[in-house]
Known about the structure:
The protein is mostly beta strands. It has 5 helices and 14 strands. A hairpin with a 4-residue loop joins strand 10 and strand 11. The chain has one domain: SOS response associated peptidase-like (hypothetical protein yedk fold). The strands form 2 sheets. A 5-stranded antiparallel sheet has the order 3-1-8-9-14, with no helix packed on it.
Amino acid sequence: MCNLYSMTKSQKAILELTRAMEDSAGNLPVMDEIFPDFLAPVVVEGVAGRELTRMRWGLPGPETAGGRPVTNVRNTASSYWRRWLGVEHRCLVMADAFCEWADTKPRKTPVWFGLDETRPLFALAGIWVSWTGVRGTKAEPVAGAHRLFGILTTEANAEVAAVHPKAMPVVLESVEEMEVWLRAGWEEAARLQRGFRDGGLRVLERRLAESGVQGSLGF
């Protein structure tokens, strides 16, 4: 599952692609590596219109699974997730590449995927919620109100399956798909939770991440 991605494009590029009119994200840094619990750029339909903002990666997990943060959501038929599938809880998670980990020995190898070698901007289908509690690390806990997001996953296409056959994030490549995800009823939006077209992704590189991946749970 996807527990690492990147967003290196400008705020202007995000605003132009998504047609967002509001920008509350502050000064976005170049983010070569976005891990679980990082604050990352997402686009939502806000009260004042479509908005670029930042949220923390990792949805509140069910108590039956220990309450651990959930970075990836696959089972949208689950009653736990159904309450957050309406348009008011959907978001676009902005990215220009995502990573899956090849099961190599002695260490897993990170393999980065994008639309092509120029790393065009795209969105991952996400859901978000407001939540109050403690996030961050034991050394640097962050208590209070948070806006949290997770990424929808689906079956892997040919390129990703060669590395990680179980799943891949739901990639929204076109403006039309982004509009459907943000505005359509669930019956229509749910059709986007399908494998990306075979041949539509490129392996950009295989490199070690600069920092360790934080543990997370997705289901």
